[in-house]
Fold each of these.
Amino acid sequence: MVPPNPFTDINSLNSIKATDARISCKLPRSNSLDSMFGHLHSFPSVESNGYDKQGMSHKFQNGRVQSLAKSTTQYDDAGSSLSLLCQHRKGSTLPGDTRQNVYDIDLKTSLPGPRFYPVDAVLKKEKLVMPLREWITYDVRETAVKIDPSNQEKYHKASTLRKVTISHAIATLLQHLALNCQVTQCSSNDLKRLCSIDNFVIRVSTEQSDPGWEVMGVDMINPKMQVQILTGVYTSCNFFDAVNEEEFTGRTITSNIISPYVGPDSTGDPEATNDEGMLCHFFGLLLHGLFAGEDLIGITPQALQKDQGTYEDGMPSPKRSSLAFFSHMRRNEFSRATSVSGPSFNNHHDRGSLQINWVLHPLSAIGYSGSLSQVVTNLVNCGFGHSCSGDSYPSLEMALVDICFLLQEPGRFLFEDFQLSPNEGRIIYSDKRSRRLYGRTAEAHLITDTFCKVASTGESEALLISGFQGMIYFCRCGKTRLVESIFEAIEAVDGFVVARKFEEVPTTSPISVVLSAFNELCLHFFSGSTPEEVRTIYENLVNEFGEKFHILARVLPNAVNMLSCCAPILIATNETDTSTLSDYSTLCFTLQRFMRVVSRTSRPVMLFLDDLQWADPTSLGLVHSVLSDIKGTNCMLFIGTYRDNEVRSDDIISGFLDMLSHFNVMTSKIHLNGLAESDVNSLVSDALGTLPRLSKSLSQVVFRKTYGNPYYVLEFFRSLILRDLVQFSLRERRWIWDHEKICEQNITDNVLHLLSNKLKSISESTQTALKCASCFGMAIDKTIANQLSANLKFFNLSADLDSAVEDGFIDCDGTHYRFVHDKLRIAAYELINADCKGQYHFELGMAMHSYCAIKDNIDALFATVDQINHGVPSLVIGSSYQHNVAEINYEASVKSTHQAAFTSAFNYAKVAVSLLRDDSWATQYSLSIKYYLQLGKSAFSCGCINEAKAALGKVIEGSKCLEDKIDAYFLLVAIPSLESVRTCVHVLRLLGEDLPNEDMGSCQINAAVSETKEMFERESDEALLRMANLDKSDERIENIMKFYGHLSVISWITATKMHSFYMARFAQFCLKSRVKCKHLPSAFVGFGACLCNLLTNEPFVGYKIGKIGLLLLNTSELDKDEASRVYLSYYRELGLLFEPIQACVDMHNRGYELGMQVGNTSLASFHLCLAVQRKIISGINLQVLKSEIESCLKLANLHALTDLEVVMNICYTNVLTLIGEQSICPIQQVQGPRYEEIELTQEMMSSWFSGHFDRVNYLSKKWEALSNKINVKNPIEAISAAFYNGLATMKMYRTKGYKFPQPLRHISQRLLPVLAKAEECSQWNFKSKASILRAEYLSLTSKKEKAECEYEIAISSARSSKFVHEEGMACELAGMHYKHHGNMTKALDFLCQSKKCYESWGSQQKVDQMVSAIQDLLLMIPNTQCCMQDITTAPH
């Protein structure tokens, strides 16, 4: 039968992926190989048996040569060939085989998939069959003669790989026989013949122009078997080119037995051996001949007896009976044998009586790697019986595993590339060991799965990884390397990765670390997008930020740089803007809005921040604000790593996790424990370039000593090398170790002590350089190092740091010197005397101040100040440079504010203030104002309110004139309170405004409002719009308007009664000054809102004045910072009276965004409160509204917005009541008339829908009393109170049967006119309410037809205005009306329609009420049982 040719089916070949291998040949065992072997003839010569004249293939059969036809049998398909690959019987046993796999290993490789030969390349290859011995001779001759000397090394590598491939194939054949036949029971002579070089033929394919061979298969002559080899080469489709590649990483071999042996069962030799030792032994001899290309080397037994000592390397020899030939080899006492014979045994069972009369020439002595030499040696040693070395193979299966390692990772095991170090004669590998991940496969999969979840759902998640330090040099087993292992996979799916690291001694503020990550993200977004996508991003950013685009430019400069091609004019204008970010809230909000625009599920983002234990609350809060954005989806996975044994006492990480949980951000945690013993073995194997089987004894000791702690493993291992307990043998070309002495070693629990001892062994100048570098954290700028070298104390610093690089303590990336691990930095820092550390830092900082250009380098400025401040105050106060230190701290504070590092700015400002003299207000007046004012600003920006008030109080107390106090006053009134109102009034009085200190009576307030109204009536619209611009030099007018504008907002909440008076005086001042500035729109709109009295014609006058204010706001010359304030005043009352309520909600949302942009969180929270209140009365779905209010409550908690929290709790309770759920909000005592007003009107609404009509009337009376007390009736609250009060009164009148007309007169004379006036202002907002109230009144007064007409109008109006709750209310009341008048059919129709409306609204309690009413009604209508069941069981 002609054997199949693996290259016949070209299409199937190209689809094969050689990443898995297994053998599944289940054949009957044979007890003897006599019938299988027959008589082995020697190989015929090449002329008669190797090739014919046409170059056709041949095969051997019964010692004869037969030609192979060029046409061969095809494989069925690629899948069938993959089903016969070389990993065998996992989880199954063969017939008659009871052995288990001894060495279970996955032969899959994690490298990129192989690239097979192109079809045309394969077609050109000629197929040749050649005896193995002849192939060896030919390969040696080709390599030695025809190869260019310059390529000798590359051709040697190619030859080595081919020979290892052949070894793999032969091992596969022998293992197949061992598994399916009783090979282990054969005589040694049979096994010797079986493993003879002359028993194998190889099939090769080559191109005529390529001297490199490709091995296609190996044939065993007797018994007749064939194995097909499929080779996956990772770098080139040409074998020779593959080994030319510098980064050649290996190949995956799949050996497929295509002509298995099937022989009869036999009883076998009763004296045969019962293990695979001799089979491995003779296989080892075969491999030696294959690689060495020569026969055995003979020595006398007497010479062998001399080797009873130790290795020349000083290491004790192992069992000498099995490895004695190595000792003789080391002394170069070899003589080539003329006749060679193997071990001689008296019988099959007693191999202990071995008489050695030859020795092998170790492969390492002729240029092969130590690992390969060990494989061959350990195979040969299997023939020495009880004297076998512990490294000998117990089975051929384990040897096959090691051969696979040789092929898969030749850079580690086959091609050693090392040189002697000029220092201490140590070995230095010129190639970098593969940076693989050890023992973290499950964790890596979890990270990958989490990222895929974020990419598919678009919902941001957080993943925190904790554990001990774990990375040094090439080790990949710690937190950082775990995360970095998936970077490539994320980038392969078009994801973006940005990574940053916090440092214990930061060179920049922690918040700058986060900002720089998002700034880098801009580059990824724009570089990974098409020009059209970039243009779309630009347009969306402009729409989002509008005139505040310069704020984005300040936070993320790369966003502007990348968009410059789209808007050069806009960006050029904004680049000159010198305004600064207001506070931390502005920063958070800016990043939120940016991520809303640029994030997308097609390009998910992974933000990785390392060493979170060194972060601060503001930096983590910035990350939290992006992850928990309630307005958008950011599609971002945040991964943070930290050392749980080094987390600070305040444990900011726990607070960070609590915040994420509070905002329902999905969060996962991973804790990394020490490495498992198998993982430590992999690490040691990689470190030594030794096969895992051989390094296991050493790794077991290392594991017991270190408990798998990655950092301890590497440090302990390096200490063994430094003490020569592990050393490299040049003769054996491998690492060797003294097992007994290593077991006696102890590892200290104090790694810092270990590292300190190591640092003390280096030169004193290098120690000084490392101490200096450690003061700067993990890295020091090369520029700073060069400049410090000019200082006598730090002379030659750069050169000494270069020496530290050579010693391996630090790395240099071109711009920075960086410690290889922070434990090394800490150890270097500990070299500084603890009592002198402050002085050391201070002297270093002063040297930088003298020699470094800190004015031109912001980073150098921060580094200098940080060093100097270690000496504050003890080394600075009273010195000549006290003023200079204070000044550079002030400058650093200002620069930090510009960079949004508010916490750093606050700390620098505190130092500057502390360095002022005790009599600074007398001797350093200007500096005192400057420093304290900066302290107050920075304290406010990072949320330290008490510190801010104290600093600003110092300015007000110590300043000599109002001009010096004015900025402090304005900052002081930023937070709304009654005290802020009094402060504003006090400042206005100081500026010349005649304002009362105490509350005024209603008559005086009304008189001021009327006077201001008359002043507006005397002005034309054109005159109001064309006022002259304010002269910048007139600071008094600008300051008055600024404080009036602020007073207009805070008085609305905290001084409600006086609000109208303050607005009237504000408008009067603007009309008298007749100048236009950014505060003018606030004056006009605010006063217009004060005229909204529904019982007069003033609302229309106020609406006109308010519209003029909006027109002034849209004037391009005016600053838009006032927009949020103007929108609040206008849409709070005026807009709601005259414009659709849904539009008002949108403008409140816009005002919230503007307030957050300028950092006015109080103003933004007012907008958010009003937006939610308006949504409740507009009929938005209650379940949606419930979720939104929950998010607002979290936002209030995050930013400490008390006003927002109070209002949201009121609204939340109301919404839960409307839904029919029980409120879980804590009962709060509401303080302030505005909050009481909101609570009363909200509860009136929920009480009416719940059917508590008595309570509605009670709440209405309470609201009336409150309005009279504060002399203010908010029009919206007045309309709502009139509406629900009227409905509740008529319900009670109908159900309780009142006979007195007073309630009806109250409705007709007081409540109906309020609704009618509101309807005149806006039919969209109020027509349905007015019609419902009129319909109920007409129905109650027995005006049936008019009432029914009004019900229809109310239903139609509510539907057109999208007020689904009012539509349901109108239908419900209409149904009750028709029921009362006996029209049950129409009543049923209206009640069913009402039920649908309430379902759409989301009010389950009203749905249940309607179901009950419908059931009662159906009982009154005959023949409606089926209808009743259908209606009442319909899904809610």
Note: The chain has a mean pLDDT of 75.
Amino acid sequence: MEDTSVSNGGVTSSDVRGQLSGVRMRTPKPGRQTPKSGRQTPSVHGRSADARAGTAGSSRRHLSSAGSLGIRSSLLLDRAANEFDEEDKAKFDHGEKLDDAMEVFTRQQKLCQQTTRRASVEMADTFGHDTESSTAERKSFAARRRSTFGSIRLRRRTTLGLSAIALEEEDTASSGILSDFIDRGKAAAGASGMRSEDWFAEALEKSDLYKEDHIENLKGVLFVEQLSDQMMQSITCESKDRGMFLPTPASVFKRHAKLMFAFRRVLQMIEVAVENLLFRRRLMTNPVIHGKESAQERKARMSEFYGSYRPSNKGYPEKVASASSPKYSMSFDLSIQRNAINGMKWSVDAPAGSLVHKHWEKEQLLTKDGRPEDPLGAGRYPSAAMKSGEQRTLCKEVSRRLEPLRTAKRQYFDECHKGQTLPVANDFVAGHSVDFKSHGRIFTDAELLAVVGMLDRSAGIEDVDLEGNGLLTDKSLVPFLHTLSSELLSPVLTSMNISNCSRASGRTVGAAVEMVRSASNIRSLNLSNLPIGTQYHFAVCQAIGAHTALQTVNLSKTGLGNSSCITTDCLTRLLTNKNVKQLDLSWNRFDHEEFRHMGVLISQGGALEELEVDGSSAYVVGKDSPAGDLLEALALAQSLKRLSLVANRMDFRCGLVAEDALETHPNLKSLVLSENPLGSLGMRSLLRLLSRKTNALLRFDSEGCCHGAALEIQDNASVNTGAQIFSFTNPGSKYNLNLQRPYHRSLLRMLYKTAERANLDFNQAFRDIDYSEAPYSHPSKEHGIWQVARSGQLSVVFSVEAQIKSGVKGIDDSDFMGFLEAHFEMTRFRADMNKITALFAKWRELSGRELDQQIYLDALAKDFNMTLPYLAYLCKTAPGMEAKVLVELFPTLPCDAHSRYLSMLNFPKVQHFMACYPQMENLLRFNAHNPSGHYKLDLGNCCDFSVAERLILLDRWESVVNDRRGRVDTSARGNHSHLRNETYQGKPLHLRVKSVAEWSLPEYDVFETDYMSSYRVPSDVEALSDALWEDLMIRMYRSPCRPVDKIKVLRGISHDIFITSMHMRQMVGYFKDASDRLEACVIFFLRVLDMHNMKKFRVRFANEEEVNCLRQRLGFATFFPFLQPENATFSLDFAFHDQRICANMIVDLASREKMGNIKDYIFTRADGTVDNMTMGVPRGWAEYDKLPPDGVFKCRYVCAPEDRKVEHRRKLAETFAFWNPNFRDEDISWWTGLSEVGEDILDLLEFFISRYSHVNQAFRDIDGGVGQNSDANSNGELTLREFQNGLRDIGCKKFSGPNEQQRIANIFRYLDPGAEGSVSLNEWQILDQLWKEFDLSIREFVQFLVFAFGDDLYEAWTALDDDGSGELSEAEWFEAVEKIGYFGPARVVFALLDGSDDGNISYDEFIVLEAYKKQAGS
């Protein structure tokens, strides 16, 4: 048995989140410590994963570096070095030595400025990356010798009390992988002082590999990396100031360093083990190389043979061997040791090791001195030389054994003379061998008959090989076989091969059957490629089955199976022989039942070790290959060591059957499946089978198996096509199984194995069972095999939620990354260490076969967990394939940023990294801590597929969490899913499946979806300070990143921060396009602490279309304005679960506050008829079950302040949006958006702002009149007439015109939502809410100008008035503010500044903003 284990295995995955598995590091010397397998590597905060899971609710938990390329392992090491106290440093510098290499490595890390680069270069060398020369490295280190947080110097300025930050950029280098590539390139080019972005842009422009538009995208990658790093630096600084980073002990740093050296050692061990395995295979599989017979040797041998041929009395001259005739002989050579007669040796005329010498050696006809002939025969050796009696005795024995052969040879010559044919110098007829080896010698009938004539005189034949003698017919073969069947010769015969004697017929077959029956000691029989008629099949199989000595049988291409009526009986007779060890039935024809019967017979016991059934499937297009039935039945064939099923039309279905059946096979070492369309899916099954420790498989041949039918599958739920795909990582799906098919039975068994591994209760794992032969009962195991039903149609949903509940323990509900790691560790396949060399030896075998290598990588990418040394080995052993290896296997690495960073060092050049970046971007930018957002994924791309897979797993995890917490289902379709608006191939996914939980993720085409997490902000976290948030916004504003790239940066850092509603409001104002604003809002929506003030940023989405888009993406229930639903409009489709919930909440709230609060309602039924609801909105809708199942309901909600039921609103928010209810009523900022009211109300508000400091002053003037006794005349309420007269008294002429009274009446009705006919001071506060929005919008604009242009507003005016005209019209104003990058409510500012109402603003009007600048600072 081949030994494939790698010695010295044992460092566990827990040291660095699964980066290394099963590899033991060097045995420590006494007194040294090694990392314990159970310890968890601290995160970037310096805390262990266990600690983080236990305190996931704290603010520290959200400051990890995952999801950002800019924060890498370098930041961990930098912080570790920065935060050592003096005692720690002393211990670190002068503590116990690890080994010589570790001492060097430790000294290299003492300076925190050099930590990052030295670690990356060390790992680059570890993984075989070609680094620059040491001089170039030193230049690179010197160029980067700065503090991690020193790349940007911040100059704080205070203007009007506002904290602003001006950035003076020294260098924009960051700690990302691209920056490493750039720094090495700069060092090599002697341009270390050049700015990174300038050098990178110049390098791209010089390269002819990229188009101009592509170059801009590549530049964006660098800008994203820089911006991400800069923003994380600011966040980290504030987090340190707040004490949110715990000091990292020196032991963590040392352990990381030790692991880096362990990676190198593991890589070296893998290389050695794989090379040894491949070398042993070459030695074992290469044929024996015989010595080549020289021309002189052949001439001497032929002369000796034909020298004995004396055809007399036939007119031919008699040939007499003369003394001068060349002989193939040996003679004494006494010249070597003349005085040592006992030590004399025979010298060989022909060199030892020649063909003839090998034959004699095999037949044990050599003397002890290596003599191939006896000295007494023909007197060829001088008898005087035979001094020793022992030598003479030995020579006599040799002569005695060769005498029958000489006699037979003389008989052969006579037979040739009789048959008038020339003798053939065969080793057997020449007397040199007892084996008749004539493979491909093209014997004629006459020549073989001559041999038949000499058989009676010979001592017998042991091995007959007539393969390939296509000229032989029954005329010679029948006598030949009959002669061998004689009592004299048959006991001697041990092997018979008459393969490819194509002119033989039934008589020869009959003679062969007789010969088999009589040759009791025959061990090998080869009848392949003989035209055996159907009438002889049973006889042949019966004779073989009854034989007691046969061990090797070859019946390939003999027509078995052409007559299905007797094939089963033939197989039964044939396989009753329990002594046969090798059986070849290739190139015959067997159907499903015959293959199954064959497998059952083989599994019933016996000694069969090798089975070949190549090209024998009676395949029907569109159906399963019959070979699957054989594979399924071989699960109990324990003696089988080699199985060959070449060219049997086996696709991925048979691959899964093979994995299922052979998973625990104890002896099968070799599996030959060449020329089968296995494709990527089949290769996955075989690689999983090869990597399991529960079987003995060491290799499988898959040449020509790169093509498969996986991409041709159009419907994963189709029973007719059988396109049910088993995913080892995510088996949760709905399965429609026809249990008459082996593939579906194996798939069902794989599901039961999955449930067994996860210790699942079958009733929980298998739900929604529908069985055509009900009742369905779960199978039991016999002999380690699940005995599933073999008939009927079964529809079942395998619940991944049950797998999650049972297998994922100790993970905090909000620790999404921890869940993914635990789930992948549980479900993804990790190759056993005893099989890892076999797995990589397979990779080496595929060298030069690019298509085969591609499906090998694809198979690993979908189901395997890989480590950094494994990835490095694959890259190192496939020059030119590094980019493909890294792209395909990137999803298999641990999710932490350190592993990703180090893995990308395997890219040979920056060009390779940039070429692969677009394919890897979605996975690189995927933030598992905060997955909310929009995704458009190409499932044919392994990285995009991995993102889709993670989203589905997180969806199931959150479903389990919500169920455990008793939360209400607020999904769009009532299926507990967090995925919304799912489409596949451009069509809604719900048309295919009810829920994504029932969907088997395909591997082609485009999947698009929105994800909205049910994560909620913990109660003990803090929002970023306003100063830091302004810092981040300034950095984002000044960054050269495109808006779409800024969104990527925000997504990457979103999990590290919490914000307020005002922060959200400020951020969305930095984006021009609605799509970018919406995406930013979705990303940070669940990071807002004061969600009760959501309306502050909600009003920034003035367009109703944007609001509806947010509802669709976030969820109607999630984005419902629970505390401030006033003025909100709704259009609800009752076909969706969450929209029905919204209608239920609206009616429930109105029933408690006032039913008249629901305005402008209308209901459109599903058939298109309109119901004006003249009787009002049904109160029964306050109960969810009484809502109609379909139709569209539209309405608007209003409410007077005195009618608000805040406590009930709070309860609704807690129930349906999972808000934290622990906020006070006074914490709520009542707000109204400018877009919620009409133009007339805004005009009135602008009038009040220009004349009053608060709206209450305007109320008193209108109510009591203008003058000294105004307060005395006020009664605290306004009627419509009082309102009209009061506006006239205070000089408001905004509404002058023919419809003045109507416009004022409309304003009054808005201020009187309760329709009491009067407006109280409390109701008048609606204008105060508008006032606050108006005022805040102006102050935000002024703040933006200060950020962009500094304190002097004249600089801002100069930028706005770019034509120098001194005035800005309204159109010019909108164009100018958009040009400078402000995308907030510019209309409000213009209305304020245009005090003259002439439609233009001048600098004198613009300078009014100085007052708001002072207010902003107060």
Note: Residues 1-173, 311-357, 366-387, 714-722 have pLDDT under 50 and may be disordered.
